[in-house]
Amino acid sequence: MNDDQGERDTTDDAPRPEPNAVSVKSSDTFLHRFLNAEDGILLFVRETLVSVSAVVAIGLLLFAISGVWPPMVAVESGSMEPHMYRGDLIFITAPDRFTPDYAYEDTGIVTVDIGSEKEFSSFNGPGSVIVYDPPSRAGSPIIHRARFYVEAEENWYDKANPNYINADSCAELRNCPAPHAGFITKGDANGRYDQASGIAEPVKTEWIDGVAHVRIPYLGYVRLELAGMFAPMPVASEAGSVDAQTHIAPDFESTNQTVSVV
């Protein structure tokens, strides 16, 4: 027997790996079982992670578009009816996003008087609908329409619609003259301006959390039901008017439309 034959015999006698050894070993790893599970706890965990990841991705996309967090608020009451209802989900953006050139100065807010002149409509009415949170307020942020702007110490009695005040002069009108510059606001379903009814002082720009743009009916109910498990729902207190609020931590309350942050 020559040397070549001996080498072949030695090689032939060496143990050979089983055909599926590598694939069997890799299929037994935790990652493989996790990705391919069809039932049990691994399937539940995987599907939960996929759902959470999708929600986070959508949230980040909405934040990139809106410039505010959270970008969605849930309406809790009815001071903006019939243009917003309790349980509506509202998409909001920072005031400087998607703002027309004719917004009031550099605030990004279109008031009702400007909106009427420029034919700018939001939620079936002229002017911007804003979410604002005055520091003097103990309740949730308010979502109401910006009616007009006043300067500090301005007598805005003559500028006001007499149907939305309950006074015969500036001296009898709350927040008149204006204690500081800001927006006069009102819920579409309310009978008086927020500033005339004592809901808030003129709304400073730094109090504005966002501007409402899109209404999605009913989707806010989930947030409201969860909020209701931990805190009582706000109740409208002004006769003949209803309010809508947004829960920011928990969000929104009283003679104003409040919303719950989603």
UniProtKB/TrEMBL annotation:
Offer an example of a GO molecular function term for this protein.
Answer: serine-type endopeptidase activity
Localization of this protein = Membrane
Protein keywords: Membrane, Transmembrane, Transmembrane helix
Q: Where is this region: Disordered?
A: 1-23
* Protein name per the record: S26 family signal peptidase
Coiled-coil intervals, chain numbering: none
Ranges of Basic and acidic residues compositional bias? 1-16
Q: Where is the signal peptide?
A: none
Q: Which ranges does the record mark as transmembrane? A: 49-69
GO terms under biological process: signal peptide processing
According to its UniProt entry, this protein's organism is Halogeometricum borinquense
This protein's GO CC annotations: membrane
